[in-house]
Amino acid sequence: MLWAVCAAAAMLSPMPAFAHAKLLSTSPTAGAQVDVPPKALTLRFDEEVQLAVLKLSTGGTDIPVPFDRGAQAAPEVTVALPDLAPGTYRVQWSALTADDGHVVKGTFSFVVAAAAH
Known about the structure:
Helices cover 9% and strands 49% of the residues. The chain is built from 1 helix and 7 strands; from the N terminus they run αβββββββ. Strands 1, 2, 3, 4, 5, 6 and 7 form a 7-stranded mixed sheet that branches.
């Protein structure tokens, strides 16, 4: 009987959450077509993260995007972008969650439209 009481107490005890950070939104928005090339890229998460990898590419060519790998963890990460020509851009990112160090990653694309003549 004592084991049943202990088992029930263990099930009712608060358990730590083991969920990973989730990307809530991006700017530019994933799948967006923008008329003006963005000057920055923003990733918004549901918890604090530290950006580990950020790759930007177009047409199979990588575009260097420097960022501070030692920046303090935050729920929003913004990096400056170089001047972008019209085209389709692929963003690949990886981040470490601040609370448990788990790696979360993803990809998305956006399009910079050609200027109308």
